[in-house]
Amino acid sequence: MIASHLPVLQVALPLIAAPVCVLLRRGRWAWAFTTIVCWGMLAIAALLLDQAMGAGPISYRLGGWAPPIGIEYRLDGVNAFVLLILAGTAALMMPYARQSVEQEIRPERQHLFYCVFLLALTGLLGIAATGDAFNIYVFLEISSLASYVLIALGRRRRALTASYQYLIIGTIGASLILIGIGFLYAKTGTLNIADLAERVPALGETPAILAAFAFITVGVLIKLALFPFHLWLPNAYAYAPSFVSAFFAATATKVGAYMLLRFVFTVFGAPFAFGTLPLKEVLLSLSLIAVLAGSLAALFQTDLKRLLAFSSVGQIGYLGVGIGLASVTGVTGALVHVFNHALMKGGLFLAAGAIAYRLGATDLSALHGLGRRMPFTMAAVVIGGLGLVGVPITSGFVSKWYLVQGAFEEGLWPVALFVLVGSLIALAYVGRVIEAAYFRAAPEGGEPVREAPWAMQLSIWAMIAGSVYFGLHTDLTVGIAERAAAVLLGAP
Fold first, then answer.
1. pLDDT (tens digit, 9 = 90+) per residue, 440-452?
2. Which residues on adjacent β-strands are paired with residue 72?
3. CA trace torsion 184, 189, 190, 196 (10° rounding)
4. Most CB atoms closer than 10 Å: which of 96, 108, 262, 271?
């Protein structure tokens, strides 16, 4: 009986758990409860992915009303894969959260922190699970409003500014998406995504469909933080609490990538987006600029968290490249990179938070000699950084291999060249961190620095070890991504 309700439980569980954290009143109790909830969601996500990949798409009718009249949760290989990434990231990061949150959030706010975190997670999961276009907007607003609060809880006053900037830009993006959905509803009379997928292609190049496509695409690109819509991201990631930075870096932009895939390939269709309209040229151009601009900006940062934030701008460019290639190989590369980047960048931001936990700062100058003083944390930074470069045996290599292969299949060798150049720039900014930690002398007369607590190390190394494991064993991630890409593109 419960198994048939797993799709709605995936979203309802954190939504119901959020107010319970408020009632618990104590930070550690709220953390323990949230940890249990997150691991429960991971179990549900794994079961849903197994069902979606084995028996085909799962349709769950809310209230028993048949779609398209009623609201439907519809899970195929694409969004079931994204649900696993979201739930898995939250579960793996929870051991880290307790001590990090206790240091950065005032005791009287800690239970509220976990409440808002669960609301943010609810919104992200809901975006991936729902089969209703308007519900995507609703869940987007839930996750966004919670995100603004979580970022504002950062220790620096700049966190308030970063949160406000994200609020303004995020509101613009959400408004554009809502307007686009409104055009779709006005023209088709439905909000069900599967129903839209049947009706929209038949309408062709009508003004309403063209306007809907433009509004939704630009709005989603803002949420994805693809250049030049990335301005909210660096400050939001750099000044948020360490746990929040790591969680959003691993999840938020990945949901943006899912939204772009779902609207472009499922609702509007690849022939319309990449044939009738010049989305391929636009998306590839912006993505390649993002790869170079984000990587070059990271190269000149003097703070580790800002370096990783600008690196994310470049890594989002790789997602755009895969989507823009509009081929099974390219989209496979994008989906694999969604998974791999969540592991790599999540682990790196957790490591940066561990450094801040011990040193109170993440300036590169504070990292001098840290390779000998915090060897496990810095080893995680090195391995994660090599994953961003795309060194073989890391999962980052797998992503870029498929992107390069997809570019050559389309005859776009300059795209492959840009991917390689971006990797070389990544090697340069990762090298700056390695130089500071291993080739610069530690400051004299300073207090001894200990490793981060074991619980924090557990989360860090779970993410980093995962990025290596899935770089060596690609059958699971690549297999799921290839099938999901085939579903999106309608390939046999």
1. 877 766 667 788 8
2. 61
3. -50
4. 96
